[in-house]
Amino acid sequence: MNQAADRSLSYPLPRFTGREHLGLGIPPIAALTKWLLSALVPIALLLSVPDPASSNSMPDVFELYQQSKKRGSYLSPDPEELDIVESLFARMLEGERGEQLAAQWRQLGYRLQRARLNNLVVLALSEDEKKRKGRGFYLFPLEQTGSSLLMIPHRFFDMHTGPIGLKLYAAGSFAGAAWNTVHRHKKSTTGNGFRRDNDNLPNWDLADLEDSYFTALTRAFNRTFPQGHLIQVHGFSREKRNSWEGRDSDVILANGTMTPPQDLIEFADCLKLKMGVMVRVYPHEIRDLGAMENVSARITDNFGNRGFIQMEMSLGLRQDILKSKELNKVITGCMQESWY
Questions:
Q1: 44 assigned to some structural domain
Q2: Is the dihedral of CA 103, 109, 112, 115 positive or negative?
Q3: Residue 279: closest CA among 297, 254, 242, 308
Q4: Are residues 252 and 106 in the same domain?
Q5: CA dihedral 154, 158, 159, 161 (to 10 degrees)
Q6: Of 2, 28, 102, 132, which residue is most buried, by most CB within 10 angstroms?
Q7: How many domains are contained in the chain?
Q8: Strand 148-152 relative to strand 279-281: parallel, antiparallel, unpaired?
Q9: Could you report how far apart the first and last alpha carbons of the chain are, in Å?
C-alpha cells in the first residue's frame, strides 16, 4: 500500500479522562467500539473500490476494436464539427485527461474509457453503438509520453493491418493511434460487392478524404508535435505490382515526396538489418506506392514536418508479424533508434 493510503488509514487511539466511572466521559468499551468503527469503515470502502488497472470489468481493447466496425454508410462531418474534433484531439495529444474532455466527446457520440490492451491500460475512444457514423476508433496512453502517431486507414481492405496496428501500439510508445471503422470502398448500389477504384462512386478512403476525423487528428498532431512522426500502416499485393522491384519487396517506405528524409532511410536500413527482409524506399529504389496522393502526407508536409511515413507491407510479411511475438517489437525498436 502506498504512503498516501497509509496516512489515510491512520487513526488516533481513544483518550480516556479517568472519570468515565462517574458518567462524565465515554465508557471505555463504547469509546473503543467507536474507534474501531471509525477505522474499519474507511478500510472497507477502500477495498470495495476496484483498481482500474486490474479490474476484470474493464473492457478489452480488441473487443472494443471489433465492435467499432460500422455497418452501412460513412457520414461526413461538417466543418464546424471538425474544428471541435481537432481541438479535442489536440488537448488529448497535449496530455489532457478527465471527465470534462470525456463529456465533450460524448456530445459528439463518442465514449472515452479506460480499457485493457495486453498488460497495458489505455484510453479507448469509440463511437456509441447507436450513433456510429464510421469516423474511426482511437487509442491514447493514460499519460502522454510519445511523439509518434500510428494510423491504420484500410483495416478491412489491407488484410491484417488492423490487428498489426494493435500489436505495434502495445509494443511501442505512441502519442495515439487511429483505425478506420468502415470499408474504404462504398458498397455498390447495383450489386453485392464493394466498389473498386474504377467505379464512378464516392469512396470512403480515410487516406484520401479531405475532411475527416483522420485529417483533424493529422492537423492536431502536427500542431502538437511539429517534428513528430506519423506512421500509416498499409498492405500491398506483390502480384499486382507492375515493376520487378514491387514484386520483390517486403516493405515499401515513402513520405509522399520525392526527397525522403534521412531518418526514413535509417528506418529502412534498420528493418533490413534486423528483420532480414527486402525494404525499398520511394523514389530512390522503387517507383511504386509513393504516397503522393495521401492526404495526411500532404497535410504533414504543409506544416513543414518531414515526419510522415507510409509503411506498405506484403501479405507474407503481415502474416509473419501477426504470428510472431517479436517482429512488432523489432519494428517499434527501429522506430525508436531511427528518430529519437
A1: yes
A2: positive
A3: 254
A4: yes
A5: -60
A6: 132
A7: 2
A8: unpaired
A9: 36
Q: What is the CATH number of the domain that holds 325?
A: 3.40.630
This prediction has a pTM of 0.80
Supply 87's cell numbers: 481541438
Q: Which of 121, 130, 136, 135 is nearest to 65 (CA)?
A: 136
State the DSSP code for 129: G
Do 251 and 132 share a structural domain?
yes
Q: Are residues 139 and 278 in the same domain?
A: yes
User: Is 130 a member of any domain?
Assistant: yes
In the chain, the largest separation of any two C-alpha atoms, in whole Å, equals 103
The whole-angstrom separation of Cα 116 and Cα 40 is 32
Residue with cell 475512444: 125
**Whether the Cβ atoms of residue 128 and residue 157 lie closer than 8 Å to each other:** no
Q: What gap in Å lies between CA 219 and CA 103, rounded to an integer?
A: 22
pLDDT in tens, the chain (340 residues): 433 333 333 334 444 444 433 344 444 555 544 444 444 433 333 333 334 444 568 999 999 999 999 877 888 899 999 999 999 999 999 999 999 999 999 999 999 999 999 999 999 999 998 889 989 999 999 998 899 999 999 999 999 999 999 999 999 999 999 999 998 766 533 344 444 444 555 578 889 899 999 999 999 999 999 999 999 999 999 999 999 999 999 999 999 999 999 999 999 999 999 999 999 999 999 999 999 999 999 999 999 999 999 999 999 999 999 999 999 999 999 999 998 7
The answer to whether residues 22 and 68 belong to one domain is: no
**Co-location of 131 and 9 in the same domain:** no
Phi, psi (deg, nearest 5) at residue 120: -105, 155
Shared-domain flag, residues 22 and 120: no
Task: State the Cα–Cα distance between residues 117 and 123, nearest whole angstrom.
Answer: 10
- The answer to the question of residue 74 being in a domain is yes
- Is the same domain home to 219 and 265? yes
Q: Contact, 290 vs 282, CB < 8 A?
A: yes
Which domain, by its residues, includes 177? 61-339
Spatial strand order of the sheet with 110-117 comes to 110-117, 120-127, 137-141, 176-179, 148-152, 229-236, 308-314, 251-254, 279-281
Q: Are residues 90 and 68 in the same domain?
A: yes
